[in-house]
Amino acid sequence: MASYESSLRKASLEAARLHRDLAIQAQTVHGNGRVDVYGTIARLGVPLMFTRLDGLLGAYYREPAPGILVTTQRPSSQQRYTAAHELGHHHLGHSPSLDDENILRRAQRRPSSREELQEAEAEAFAAAFLLPRWLLDWHCERQNWKDSDLADPANAYQLALRVGISYEAAVWTMHQYGVFDRAIARALADIKLKSVKQHLLKGFEPANFRETDVWLVTERDADCRLDGGPKDLFVVKLTEHSGSGYLWRIDAIDGEALAVVADGREAIGVDEIGGPSMRLITTAAQDRRAGELRLAEARPWQPGVPLNTFAVRYDLSGAERQGWYRDQRKQHRLDLEAKAA
Q1: Domain 4-130 adopts which CATH fold?
Q2: SS3 of 231, please?
Q3: Is residue 155 within 8 Å of residue 180, measured between CB atoms?
Q4: What does the radius of gyration of the chain's CA atoms come to, in whole angstroms?
Q5: Keywords, A to Z (predicted)?
Q6: Per-residue pLDDT tens for 5-14?
């Protein structure tokens, strides 16, 4: 059996090789800042289906032809990680695998069998595939984060949301890159996300914290696309020059997709008379829809002359539902029609 370290290194290198061969980096940074794992599986010609899997998160088959199954009973971040894990099995030439909750937990002991080593390799592949170092650096540059800023659980959580993986997976992947040491990683992983969400919401309470993600949206997210779920909350935090009469207003919102549930302000540093403040507008997702939220900062008596504008696109589709991956549905239908002819 190959050494543990060399096997994990090889798996990570294979993820990087696939990024290079399929030009995934360019696609990601010019897209929504997330690696398209489902699209990659489709490009490799591997059938991908989402379905109910009692007791399992995913499965990889090799016979009579390669195929991947992913559960419909988990949130999008776990579906994506599971799909990347199964893609790892395929790309690394592994044996068929039925994968349960264990793929979401980082083993603290070295594998003692070939089967356990195979799972560790698929896990390393998934982490390197979904959050490569270049993507971490890209988001840090966009958000103006330094490595030290990522030891703040709120920033680590926002990174996880933007790359589409779980908070814990993001923490341990950053540890692997040397962003912080194991003690900090363990402390971050042990934090209850409910407390992070409560801090971001400034008193607003959703019906269910567990099923709700909370996005902190700032000027650095302008003109990007956020991929959330139908129960998510977006806290839009923008500098407002209210001392000069400029106030943020919502110019465009799809009321069937988003609803404003809280609106407030907080001081910036020392509360100076006439100085700017932070405007916090919290919107709640209402449905699985996509659209754009647009705001303008203008004086009420000069609405047509805004000082600043802000726009962010969103897709609230959330977790994939029962059926073939959407880009493969048409081909599957054509295959069935050909067999029936």
Answers
A1: Arc Repressor Mutant, subunit A (1.10.10)
A2: coil
A3: no
A4: 22
A5: Protease inhibitor, Thiol protease inhibitor
A6: 899 999 999 9
